[in-house]
Structure formats: structure tokens, C-alpha cells
Design goal:
Blueprint lengths: L7 E9 L12 E11 L2 E7 H7 L4 E12 L1 E7 L13 H14 L4 H17 L2 E7 L4 H14 L2 E5 L1 E2 L12 H15 L5 E7 L7 H13 L4 E6 L3 H10 L6 H6 L8 E5 L5 H10 L2 E4 L1 H6 L7 H7 L2 E4 L11 H14 L8 H8 L1 H6 L17 E4 L7 H7 L3 H11 L5 E6 L2 E5 L13
Parallel strand pairs: 1-4, 5-6, 6-7, 7-9, 8-9, 9-10, 10-11, 11-12, 12-13
Antiparallel strand pairs: 1-2, 2-3, 4-14, 14-15, 15-16
Bound molecules: zinc ion (ZN).
Length: about 450
């Protein structure tokens, strides 16, 4: 048998957003009895099952009815060393960093410790349906390398980088710009563009990086024109005031990064809750993406996300869970939280199911410059997908059986689906996670 010609037709309720629903009508494509035709790890076609069956009578059918297929989820802001920080509630950003996050990040100096956390991190991503993530690495070269290696073994698409800082954290977390440059170069050489891995230059935030360190980041970006860039921006009023003191000549927070040409189409800036109109205009012009992390914003009391102002200015927005400032790995929960906070926020945007799915999939692919490869089920793209099937105890099962239409069902999926519903996660058509929680004797299946 020639495996190169084998086609598989997956049959289930299917959703994807091949267009941006914030700017295009009819961005959501949904098929109640849908088919996803894949071959050699790529999408051949997606649409109505009966039509695809007729067109491809030789394809092997896999009957997954009773469940839902979505494109693999994309998380654009998450910290790998903060898995064990989850649940540290009650403080604002700077106190939370000092008391919870930074002491844990310092423990990543120990290789065994980092390896255990990397395994937990990669497992949790996959178990929640996340196939692609832009990840803050560790402040240590070896721990960051461990993340890349662990992700490669699992088959996930990870973009990450050494977190660089030279002030105001803890001594163990500081590097000199020279040492950070050498470690970054070595990680880029070993991992960037290898399989599904990409490198991102990652200064923690302006507060912890001197001008010399930001200049080092600029050098890396110049020397490697296709690496990505990530950092934090305008998260907390106290942080912003400190940044203003440290960079008195910068007219605002965004200008600190702009001076070193760090804001561009390859850049993802987390949060941006408190930005002025000029910053939004400049971010839009640069084609940078803002990673919106609503669970973290609420948990740390950081503020409302001005989504309407971002959209009006034309700033690209995607979604991030911000583990461990956030509340977990689920992008379903994150999109629901975005909806909740926009319901309450001054001038909030009423988000619809198409927005949830777009923010959790295609928007992230665009942010990472991977939208030619992933983010929806357009023919030729990689067959990265999540298969969800609610266990009987989850009310989603009975809603699915009685839903008035696909949009109503998609809203219920984002409201009720958690890791309990994630049955199979595939990257390029190959499973990176599977669970069969309904099967007796396999109640605690963890890949
Ligand atoms: Zn963060």
C-alpha cells in the first residue's frame, strides 16, 4: 500500500475561521455533519461530510460523530517556568512577581527541576488542545533548551526564547548583556527553525532590562531576520510609572522598545491595558500583535483591556493564557473570560462565537507569522486539530444533541469545554495527545 496516497476523512461537527470576524462577514465556517479530509499530515479539504464523501469515495472514513473538530489552539502568551505558580492569588503584578513568580523562576537553574516543569508544561498544553504556543522560556540557557527539547519530543509547535534581564529582579535571574547574547546565539543555533521550533528574543519587560540589554536584543533581531520577538507592555499602572522613571526620555512605554526597533510584524506584546492613542496608532502601523490575557488581567487586578480602542486603531489582537499570572492552560476558558470582561468593561465589545474561535486559533497563527501553515482548515495547511467530545456528565453533551445551530453550539463549547472534553490533539495529522475519559479503567488517562 502506498501511504503517500492514503486519504482519511474525519466525520464530526466541524468549525474554523478562515477569515477575521472583526473585519469580515461570514468568517465562521461550521458544518453540523462535517468532514475534514487529510493526507500526509495536510488538509486536503473541509466541508460537508456527504459532499466530501461523494468526491473522495476511496478515503478511509473515521466516524467521530458526537464530537467536534476545531483547528489546533494557539496560545500567544504563556510562561513555562510558572506552571507551579498557578493559583497564587491576591496580589498585584509587582508584589506577585516578587513573592511568587520570581522565586519559582530562580529554581529553574536546577536542570532536573526545569526538566520536570518542562514535562508538566508541555503535557498541560497538549491536554488542553493547544498545539502552538509562544512561550516565555527561563532566565537560564539550560532550562530554556530543556523546554525546546521536551516540546520537540512531544511534537508541539513552540516558539520560545531565553528571558533576558539585568536589573530589578533577583540576582540569580540577571545576566550581563554579553552573557545573554552568547546564550541566545547558542539557543538560536540549536533550535530556531528546527522542526516545529522557532526562537523569540524575549526581554522580560522594560523594568528589568537596561538600555544595553535592549540594544543586545536589537542586535539579535538584526542578525536573525526571521526570529520572533516577545515582551510585556503597559500591564500595570505602577509598572508603567517605574518605566517612565527609568527611561525619562521615552515619551511612553512603547517608545522604550521602539527606540531599539523591537516593535514590528514579528513582535507580540503581552497585555497593553493602559496605552495612549498614539501608542495604539504606532502599534497598528507596525503590525505588531497584542496578546490579550483576560484571566491574568483580572487575577492580578491589572485592569480592563480596551479591545474596542485596539480594534478601532487596527491593532492586531490574539489570546494568551499567561500562565502563571493567569488561571490555567485552557484557551476555551480564556476566550470565555475575554467575553465576560468585555461584557463589563467600559465600552466593551460584545464578542460572538466566531470571535472566540478566531482569537484562539487563526489570530495566534497570524501573530506568529504562521498563518500560511496553521490556524484554520484551508487546503494545504498542516492538519493540526483538536477533537473534542464531552463526557456524559458535562452538560455540553446534551446541549450538543439539542443545539439550535452551530453558532449556539460553538458558544456552549467555549463556555463548557475543558480538558475533560479534549480527546485527541493532532499536529500534522499525528496525535500529540489522546485521552478516553469515558472508557472504564482509563479514567485518568494522561498522555
Ligand atoms: Zn506574562
Amino acid at each position: 500500500m502506498n501511504s503517500a496516497t492514503l486519504q482519511q476523512l474525519l466525520r464530526a461537527t466541524l468549525f474554523h475561521t478562515p477569515r477575521n470576524p472583526f473585519v469580515a462577514q461570514g468568517a465562521l465556517e461550521a458544518y453540523a455533519d462535517g468532514g475534514l479530509l487529510i493526507a500526509n499530515g495536510r488538509v486536503v479539504a473541509c466541508g460537508d461530510y456527504a459532499t466530501l464523501r461523494k468526491q473522495h469515495p476511496d478515503a478511509t472514513v473515521r466516524d467521530l460523530r458526537g464530537g467536534f473538530i476545531l483547528p489546533g489552539l494557539v496560545d500567544t502568551h504563556i510562561h513555562y517556568p510558572q506552571v507551579r505558580v498557578l493559583g497564587s492569588l491576591g496580589l498585584g503584578l509587582l508584589d506577585w512577581l516578587k513573592k511568587y513568580a520570581l522565586p519559582e523562576e530562580a529554581r529553574m537553574a536546577r536542570e532536573e527541576y526545569a526538566h520536570a516543569v518542562a514535562l508538566q508544561f508541555v503535557n498541560a498544553l497538549a491536554a488542553n488542545g493547544t498545539t502552538t504556543a509562544l512561550v516565555f522560556g527561563a532566565h537560564f540557557e539550560s532550562a530554556t533548551a530543556t523546554l525546546f527539547e521536551t516540546a520537540a519530543e512531544r511534537g508541539l509547535r513552540i516558539t520560545s526564547g531565553l528571558v533576558v534581564s539585568d536589573r530589578m529582579l533577583r540576582d540569580e535571574l540577571h545576566q550581563t548583556p554579553d552573557a545573554a547574547y552568547r546564550a541566545s546565539k547558542e539557543l538560536i543555533r540549536r533550535f530556531h527553525g528546527k522542526g516545529r521550533l522557532l526562537y523569540a528574543v524575549t526581554p522580560r519587560f522594560a523594568l528589568s532590562t537596561s538600555e544595553a540589554m535592549l540594544e543586545m536584543c536589537q542586535t539579535l533581531m538584526r542578525e536573525h531576520p526571521d526570529v520572533r520577538f516577545q515582551t510585556h507592555l503597559n500591564e500595570n499602572p505602577q509598572e508603567i510609572a517605574e518605566v517612565q522613571k527609568l527611561f525619562p526620555s521615552a515619551k511612553d512605554y512603547t517608545a522604550v522598545y521602539e527606540r531599539y526597533q523591537l516593535i514590528g510584524a514579528r513582535s507580540v506584546l503581552a497585555h497593553n491595558l493602559h496605552s495612549n492613542g498614539s501608542e495604539l496608532q504606532r502599534l497598528a502601523g507596525s503590525k505588531a500583535t497584542v496578546a490579550h490575557c483576560p484571566c491574568s488581567n483580572a487575577a492580578l487586578g491589572s485592569g480592563w483591556f480596551p479591545l474596542r480602542r485596539h480594534l478601532q486603531a487596527g491593532v492586531r489582537v490574539a489570546l494568551g493564557t499567561d500562565v502563571g499570572g493567569g488561571t490555567g492552560f485552557s484557551l476555551f476558558k480564556e476566550a470565555l473570560q475575554a467575553y465576560m470582561l468585555q461584557r463589563l468593561a467600559p465600552e466593551g465589545v460584545l464578542l460572538e462565537p466566531a470571535h472566540f474561535l478566531y482569537l484562539a486559533t487563526r489570530a495566534g497563527a497570524e501573530a506568529l507569522g504562521l498563518d500560511n501553515e496553521i490556524g484554520d482548515f484551508a487546503p494545504g495547511k498542516a492538519a493540526d486539530f483538536v477533537y473534542l467530545k464531552p463526557p456524559v456528565a458535562n452538560p455540553l453533551a446534551s446541549i450538543a444533541a439539542n443545539a439550535a445551530g452551530p453558532e449556539r453550539l460553538l458558544a456552549a463549547i467555549f463556555t463548557l469545554a475543558g480538558a475533560d472534553c479534549v480527546r485527541e490533539v493532532n499536529v500534522e495529522g499525528s496525535p500529540v495527545y489522546s485521552s478516553h475519559a469515558d472508557d472504564p479503567g482509563n479514567q485518568h488517562a494522561q498522555a
